[in-house]
Predict the 3D structure of the following.
Amino acid sequence: MRTLAILGSTGSIGKQTLEVVEEHPDLFEVYAITANRSADLLIEQARKFRPEVVVIADETCYPKVKEALADLPIKVWTGADSLCQVVQAEPIDMVVTAMVGFAGLRPTVAAIKAHKVLALANKETLVVAGKLIMDLCKEYQVPILPVDSEHSAIFQCLQGEGEPEKLIITASGGPFRTFTMAQMHDVTAAQALKHPNWDMGAKITIDSASMMNKGFEVIEARWLFNMTVDRIEVSVHPQSIVHSMVQFPDGAIKAQLGVPDMKVPIAYALSYPNRMPSHINGKLRMSDYANLTFEAPDLQRFPNLQLAFDALAEGGDRTCVLNAANEVTNEAFRRGQCKFLQMAEVNAQTMQAMPFVSNPSLEDYFAIDAAARVKAREILGLS
Ligand code: NDP
């Protein structure tokens, strides 16, 4: 029996994690679930899964959740600090970090310091502070099990293997894979939110359309698998069946395949080193896919991907600055305050404008994130 805390249980990954848990009540119990503002769904989840604690981060939503759960012996906490507090509870074995964005950083650090195994979906944590997080995991001897499908694929390919030569991260290419720059000029958030293969939260869906998500996955892979940036490659694979690959020194490539269903990598992270039988996870039939294609990404049309490689190569605080700028531009695009191609332009301008910090501490990252957000908003004319 594994006892879980699910940070961000009301999001796309959080809900699918609960579906996996529901299929295996003999293997998992839920100690804590958390949300930002989705009070109704959090209440519904709490009544169904009966955790010890629920956290509603936004304090204005607290009275509603508290009152709705008053008849049950469930503790209701609120505020960002409660997220850090709840992950430390003694019974918890594993923390699933399914929150979106920079907000996941502090609770992830708290979970590591409390010696909890991490099932990591919140890639922004590794984008912002990859070295710091990996160093902490080493110090506290905490394993990180990747939830992201690409990293789960690489992790699975590496089982039983020695040092890989190259990681090949596949990318669907998103809804605008074949669009010209002129066509991308006027695309709307509604168009960008229609991902061809994956059903995900809004922020990551926009990041997928701009290929910022793939850039973040390169950064995530650099830290998770201790690979230098020159040994990480991106391959556009529109069918999203090969979830990623690893090449070994003898030239052999191992790949992990499956239908695009996040419940598969979630279940693997939750049950590692075992595999659980599943009826809810889709099963791949190779005969359904006559053609699996691969092509090089176009860094001209998708400059966010190049920005991620550059930020990683420069090191220091650059990936934190890129993440902060992107959180601002991504949200601005969703609100109609920024054009699609402008997102990458403002991300680049923010990186140019921000001073370089070579070896940031955890507290430095908070200051850098805040300052980069101000700068990005200023460049966008939103401040
Ligand atoms: P969603 O937007 O669907 O869900 C985000 C969750 O985080 C919600 O529960 C939300 O609460 C909560 N949350 C958001 N902001 C805060 C905050 N400031 N404080 C506390 N809680 C907060 O995101 P996804 O599930 O799509 O993604 C989650 C993470 O997983 C991201 O880092 C993403 O990159 C990664 N990921 C997602 C994949 C997917 O298929 N969706 C695939 C691979 C990785 P509320 O509902 O109240 O807003």
Notes: Residues 315-383 form a domain with the Rna Polymerase Sigma Factor; Chain: A fold (CATH 1.10.1740.10).
